[in-house]
């Protein structure tokens, strides 16, 4: 009650103030004399230019619906309609709230309707206003696509004037958002490429620039668009060459950067080879240049991110970039904002630096991650950069999620190095912040962090011990229950690594914590990767005889069931091989092997795989039999006899003749058990 | 500090039994075992070597010149030649050169550092390059070959590794380190080996250098292929960035509070230029639009304009008459000028354009054209004017006021005569008589002789750029071509309109050369000409008595009379005199003399400023300021 009352009174006070200054302008819009209305709109135009308060006032007083009404009336003169759209455009230039109010008054359909008028001046005014509305982040871009006739009409207006070209291409590039390939497709299907390509050589810089931006948005992660772009000719010149010219060093930075983006996206979409000279000698060096200190912070961020994206899949580009213009050292500067100098000398600059500091850091981490994703020498160079590991460690616990994600990406990339795992990773105890990061982080961070953890848990990693002691098993087990396949894989992968050559205590802990139920659920996981890593975990758990016997004594029944199910189901060779390896491990146990020997069905299966067409499966099955008939163990004679009866000796005899040397060797070794 | 150091390209090799070779194609370097059999084999591999005299080689030489000119347009190779090969003199004894001094062989033992050997290029890098770049290709590195590429000053020990000594910089292939005048290198870039193309770029604007490997820039070092083939690294793109930077710097030069002042200066420059050349109507319109004043009164401008038109139309006799009438005593005080005018009048009589013979001939519309290249002729005024006046002792010209070069200094010192010659070094004449002025102009027009009727085309300008530049270097004055470009955009038909007879004929090139006859083919006119010639001779003798012998006058007279010795004067060794473009220098000399007599500047401030700017850029090159290469006056004239 009280709260509402206060709000009302505030509005009333505001209204009174507003009335005094702005009411007059709105009243004049209702004058019966059209000439006076026109003059009123013109006066309003002059009153609102650059005056945000006035704009807000007029909106509150309801000027917008009236202006829209006048704009839509066919009885209004063209001059009046044009002036109305100019005033609306001016209102849109104000705050985000202004845009919201305009959109709520259905300004977009009204202006789109206005585009059907033949008068160019009016069309240009409508487009200018539409442009201003659409480039605001608060406007739902979907509004451009609701009426299917709009896009083709905009395409047809491209030929009208340089202004229509500029505004329309700008609208397109803002209404074609990342993660919405359907927008790209709509524009593509309406001939965006053919219509916009000629604008790249327009005499107007603004038109060229907007057309270029449009292409960068259209080509992003879009193979269809990219493949079309490479074959487009503009005035007899290939589009890629036009982009290369736009990257020339005397062109404005904005143009160089956007052209480099276009070529990057075309390259990533597979339309341009990564060893093409326009990528190696032009795009890559251009993007490296953008990272240098002399450019604006925004440009450096964009340059680094685009470069990271360009070379992500290609080790050769990573190698070239790593030696270009001291890129690795150049990136170290990205971490020096806000600089100590700026804090003292210039408060404005400090503010600017602070705003971009996060963006700079995450861009640098991304680029380092991309640089170091394949080449060991580059990774070494990165870790040797000043304070690099400290920066990553502090990046992992930054407040900005973007920075945390990028930092963990970088760490992940570097964690692929055996040497770094043994040295810098351990020296800087990176596992600590990493573990902290794993506690309730968003999925995308979790995926990267757990993937990094997998590497840190490799048996040669000195961080493995302290991580184990920090109670990681529970966390990993909970990851295996995630809805995200990537997280399940990482969880089970880490457990697999952890179980490799682990002691009995750790293995018992894993089995206890994961629970057999979850283990068998994972064995029927729809994701093959999860299944493979679960089998890998089982295999690692079932190694060394005492462990095998212990686990099989407590979970033998379920494990044998699971193995049967997998061998009977439709699975890839790799899965079956892994499963047969588990069986071979079981066959190596003292008591555990009885679980196979007493299971005739299982023995038949082994027999079947010994005669399989795939050598890997034959080998694994033979291994299993070899373990069962091994001489020096109790009851080996009985087992040998039973298996001879079942016809295994004949099969082994045949396999000694196998063309695969490994297989024939294995079969010979097994046969020797009978001879001894 | 690197300024005086980055002078010589240096290539250094140390290695055990290695040989290094530069291929003529792209200045490549190779090093390999000195085993003779292998060497023979490698020589085959180093294909593309071409002996001198081979037409293909000449073609390659031509290509090289073109490329260097394009890369380093500001370099005057007469003063500072560009490096084109390794120097056979400036090298250590272990180094052998072959194939036009582009290949380097290492012949030493290469056991240790003492066996190091290096070679320098033939010339230091001219500062006017602004940015200099060369590449080297390693064909074969050899067994334990060490290689370094870099820069050094002249006189640095050639038995050392590059970068170890003071005044030398190097990038070493074995460890990828860069050495800056120190025995300890800094980790710089990747190592390099057989098959790699290594480049070195010197930026004389900000005094940095960087190296490239296979076309990729490896990054700047602070303070620190001569172009036979296109470089692997896009050096032109790098240069374009710096050109844009420097142009931006000039365009955004802060003028602060003085905006109004600058505007006034600029308006005055335009206005005075228009007035100077007598573009009366344009000047008046300009003054009206800008609300400025014209110093000279309208009648005076129109008078000068009329006289100029007469000279340019070849009606010199009338011009003399008009001058004597409007400016009594002017020519009496300038006997040299008068003599030049009379000489020209004689030439025009031969041409059949002077009114004294013209009135005697009945001209067929097609037979004659006194002014064939009409719209393109007057533009030359600007250029000739600056040539004329830069050396003048009594007016503050660019060479006097701004850059006291040796030449202009000596001339201004000796400039007691009325027209001290500035251009004597360009022309053959050494006297300071008025005739030398004329010669300097005819010299500059020599370069355009091949296209006599297209003086206003851009192509012509660029074609003649080199020769004209050479001249402007020696003169130390405004470049002829620049003024021509600028003026070329004006339409000068206005000047010619009163002279309907001569331009209305619209004769083509063929008509000019084929249909011409001495004095228009009229007997009476020829007699008048002969008579005039005698008068001219008498005038010369009179001048000799009064002022002493004058070799220039004598030569002028001889040349003019020589025309009569040929049946077709237009196509004879001295026929150049008949070219209407020859009127321009005289026209501007007369115009300047009139202005001077009215106590007005004899040279428009615009041309003065242009001359100052040009001279300033040249001075920058001499004091090794690299930015001069991208601040050329040409770039700003459209």
Number of strands of chain A: 2
- Percentage of residues assigned to helices of chain A: over 70%
Number of helices of chain A: 43
Strand content of chain A: under 5%
- In oligomeric terms, what are we looking at? heterodimer
Overall pLDDT of chain A, averaged? 89
Structural class of chain B: alpha+beta
As laid out across the biggest beta sheet of chain B, the strand order is 4-7-1-9-10-11-12
| CATH level-4 homologous superfamily of the domain at 544-675 in chain A | Leucine-rich Repeat Variant
Q: What is the third-level CATH name, the topology of the domain at 544-675 in chain A? A: Leucine-rich Repeat Variant
Beta-strand residue percentage of chain B: 5-15%
Low-confidence stretches of chain B: 1-8, 12-53, 362-514
Q: Which structural class should the secondary elements of chain A be placed in?
A: mainly alpha
- The span between the termini of chain A is 98 Å
Instruction: Please compute the radius of gyration of chain A using only Cα atoms.
Output: 34 Å
The mean pLDDT of chain B is 67
The main β sheet of chain A shows up as: 2 strands, antiparallel
Number of continuous helical runs of chain B: 24
What is the helical fraction of chain B, as a range of percent?
Answer: 40-55%
Description:
The complex is a heterodimer of chains A (676) and B (638). Chain A is an all-alpha fold. In chain A, helix 22 runs parallel beside helix 25 (401-414) and helix 36 runs antiparallel to helix 37 (573-588). The radius of gyration of chain A is 34 Å and the shape is elongated. Chain B is of the alpha+beta class. Among the domains of chain B are: 77-251, Jelly Rolls, CATH 2.60.120; 263-361 and 520-628, no CATH class. In chain B, strands 4-7-1-9-10-11-12 form a seven-stranded antiparallel β-sheet, with no helix packed on it. In chain B, helix 9 runs parallel beside helix 22. At the A-B interface, helix 17 of A face strand 15 and helix 3 of B.
């Amino acid at each position: 009650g009280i709260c509402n009352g206060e709000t009302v009174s505030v509005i009333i006070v505001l209204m009174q103030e507003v009335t005094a200054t702005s009411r007059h302008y709105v009243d004049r819009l209702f004058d019966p004399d059209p000439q006076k209305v026109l003059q009123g709109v013109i006066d309003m135009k002059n009153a609102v230019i650059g005056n945000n308060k006035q704009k807000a006032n007029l909106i509150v007083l309801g000027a917008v619906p009236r202006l829209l009404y006048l704009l839509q009336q066919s009885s209004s003169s063209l001059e009046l309609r044009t002036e109305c759209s100019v005033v609306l455009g001016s209102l849109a230039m104000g705050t985000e709230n202004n845009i919201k109010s305009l959109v709520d008054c259905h300004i977009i359909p009204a202006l789109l309707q206005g585009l059907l008028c033949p008068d160019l001046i009016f069309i240009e005014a409508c487009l200018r206003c539409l442009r201003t509305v659409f480039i605001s982040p608060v406007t739902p871009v979907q509004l451009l696509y609701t009426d299917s006739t709009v896009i083709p009409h905009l395409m047809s207006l491209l030929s009208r004037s340089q202004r229509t070209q500029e505004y329309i291409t700008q609208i397109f590039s803002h209404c074609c958002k990342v993660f919405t390939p359907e927008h790209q497709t709509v524009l593509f299907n309406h001939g965006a490429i053919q219509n916009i390509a000629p604008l790249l050589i327009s005499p107007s810089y603004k038109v060229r620039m907007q057309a270029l931006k449009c292409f960068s948005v259209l080509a992003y992660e879009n193979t269809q668009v990219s493949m079309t772009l490479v074959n487009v000719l503009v005035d007899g010149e290939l589009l890629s060459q036009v982009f290369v010219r736009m990257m020339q060093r005397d062109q404005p930075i904005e143009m160089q950067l956007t052209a480099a983006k276009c070529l990057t996206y075309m390259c990533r979409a597979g339309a341009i080879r990564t060893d093409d000279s326009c990528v190696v000698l032009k795009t890559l060096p251009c993007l490296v240049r953008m990272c240098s200190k002399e450019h604006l912070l925004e440009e450096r961020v964009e340059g680094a991110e685009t470069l990271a994206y360009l070379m992500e899949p290609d080790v050769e580009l990573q190698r070239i970039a790593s030696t270009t213009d001291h890129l690795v050292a150049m990136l170290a500067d990205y971490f020096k904002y806000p600089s100590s100098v700026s804090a003292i000398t210039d408060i404005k600059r400090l503010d600017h630096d602070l705003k971009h500091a996060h963006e700079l850091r995450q861009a640098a981490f991304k680029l380092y991650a991309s640089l170091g994703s394949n080449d060991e020498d580059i990774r070494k160079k990165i870790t040797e950069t000043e304070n690099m590991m400290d920066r990553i460690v502090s990046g992992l616990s930054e407040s900005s999620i973007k920075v945390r994600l990028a930092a963990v990406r970088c760490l992940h990339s570097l964690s692929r190095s055996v040497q770094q795992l043994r040295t810098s990773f351990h020296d800087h105890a990176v596992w600590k912040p990493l573990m902290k990061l794993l506690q309730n982080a968003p999925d995308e961070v979790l995926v990267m962090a757990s993937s990094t953890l997998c590497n840190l848990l490799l048996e040669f990693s000195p961080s493995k011990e302290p991580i184990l002691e920090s109670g990681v098993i529970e966390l990993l087990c909970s990851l295996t229950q995630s809805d995200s396949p990537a997280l399940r894989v990482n969880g089970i992968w880490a457990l697999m690594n952890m179980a490799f050559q682990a002691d009995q205590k750790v293995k018992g802990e894993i089995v206890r914590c994961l629970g057999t139920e979850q283990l068998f659920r994972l064995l029927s996981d729809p994701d093959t990767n999860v299944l493979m890593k679960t089998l890998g975990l089982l295999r690692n758990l079932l190694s060394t005889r005492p462990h095998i016997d212990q686990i099989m004594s407590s979970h033998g029944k379920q494990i044998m069931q699971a193995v049967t199910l997998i061998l009977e189901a439709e699975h890839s060779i790799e899965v079956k091989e892994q499963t047969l390896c588990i069986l071979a491990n079981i066959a190596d146990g003292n008591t555990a092997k009885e679980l196979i020997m007493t299971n005739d069905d299982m023995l038949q299966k082994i027999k079947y795989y010994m005669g399989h067409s795939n050598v890997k499966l034959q080998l694994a099955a033979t291994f299993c039999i070899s373990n069962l008939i091994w001489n020096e163990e109790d009851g080996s004679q009985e087992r040998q006899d039973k298996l001879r009866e079942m016809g295994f000796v004949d099969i082994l005899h045949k396999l000694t003749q196998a063309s695969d040397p490994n297989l024939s060797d294995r079969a010979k070794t097994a046969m020797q058990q009978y001879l001894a | 500090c690197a300024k005086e150091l980055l002078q010589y390209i240096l290539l250094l090799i140390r290695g055990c039994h290695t040989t290094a070779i530069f291929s003529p194609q792209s200045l490549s370097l190779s090093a390999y075992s000195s085993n003779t059999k292998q060497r023979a084999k490698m020589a085959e591999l180093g294909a593309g070597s071409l002996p001198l005299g081979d037409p293909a080689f000449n073609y390659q030489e031509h290509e090289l010149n073109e490329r260097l000119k394009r890369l380093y347009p500001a370099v005057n190779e007469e003063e500072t030649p560009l490096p084109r090969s390794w120097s056979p003199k400036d090298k250590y004894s272990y180094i052998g050169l072959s194939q036009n001094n582009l290949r380097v062989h290492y012949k030493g033992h290469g056991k240790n550092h003492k066996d190091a050997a290096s070679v320098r290029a033939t010339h230091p890098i001219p500062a006017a390059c602004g940015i200099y770049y060369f590449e080297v290709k390693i064909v074969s590195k050899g067994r334990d070959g060490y290689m370094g590429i870099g820069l050094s000053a002249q006189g640095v020990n050639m038995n050392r590794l590059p970068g170890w000594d003071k005044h030398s910089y190097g990038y070493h292939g074995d460890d990828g380190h860069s050495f800056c005048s120190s025995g300890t290198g800094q980790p710089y870039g990747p190592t390099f080996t057989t098959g790699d193309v290594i480049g070195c770029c010197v930026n004389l604007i900000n005094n940095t250098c960087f190296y490239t490997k296979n076309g990729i820039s490896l990054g700047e070092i602070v303070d620190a292929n001569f172009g036979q083939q296109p470089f692997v690294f896009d050096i032109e793109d790098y240069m374009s960035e710096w050109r844009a930077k420097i142009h931006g710097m000039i365009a955004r030069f802060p003028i602060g509070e003085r905006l109004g002042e600058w505007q006034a200066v600029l308006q005055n420059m335009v206005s005075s230029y228009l007035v100077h050349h007598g573009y009366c109507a344009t000047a008046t319109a300009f003054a009206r639009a800008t609300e400025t004043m014209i110093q000279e009164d309208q009648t005076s401008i129109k008078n000068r304009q009329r006289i100029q038109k007469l000279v340019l139309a070849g009606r010199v006799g009338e011009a003399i008459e008009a001058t004597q009438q409007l400016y009594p005593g002017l020519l009496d005080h300038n006997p040299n000028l008068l003599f030049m005018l009379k000489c020209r009048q004689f030439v025009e009589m031969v041409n059949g354009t002077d009114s004294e013979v013209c009135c005697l001939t009945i001209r067929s519309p097609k037979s004659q054209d006194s002014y064939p290249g009409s719209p393109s002729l007057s533009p030359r005024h600007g250029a000739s004017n600056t040539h004329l006046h830069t050396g003048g002792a009594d007016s503050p010209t660019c060479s006097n006021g701004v850059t006291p070069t040796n030449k202009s200094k000596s001339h201004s010192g000796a400039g007691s005569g009325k027209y001290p010659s500035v251009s004597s070094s360009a022309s053959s004449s050494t006297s300071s008589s008025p005739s030398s002025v004329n010669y300097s102009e005819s010299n500059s027009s020599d370069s355009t002789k091949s296209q006599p009727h297209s003086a206003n085309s851009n192509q012509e300008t660029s074609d003649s750029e080199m020769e004209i530049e050479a001249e402007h270097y020696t003169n130390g004055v405004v470049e002829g071509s620049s003024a021509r470009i600028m003026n070329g955009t004006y339409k000068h038909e206005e000047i010619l309109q009163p002279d309907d007879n001569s331009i209305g004929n619209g004769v083509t090139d063929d008509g000019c050369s084929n249909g011409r006859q001495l004095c228009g083919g009229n007997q009476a006119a020829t007699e008048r000409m002969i008579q005039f010639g005698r008068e001219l001779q008498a005038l010369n003798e009179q001048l000799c008595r009064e002022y002493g012998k004058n070799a220039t006058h004598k030569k002028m007279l001889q040349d003019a009379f020589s025309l009569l010795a040929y049946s077709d004067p237009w196509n004879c060794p001295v026929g150049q005199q008949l070219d209407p473009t020859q009127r321009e220098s005289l026209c501007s000399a007369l115009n300047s003399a009139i202005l001077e007599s009215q106590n007005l500047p004899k040279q428009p401030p615009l041309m003065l400023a242009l001359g100052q700017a040009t001279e300033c850029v040249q001075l920058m090159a001499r004091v090794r300021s690299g930015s001069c290469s991208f601040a050329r006056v040409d770039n700003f004239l459209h």
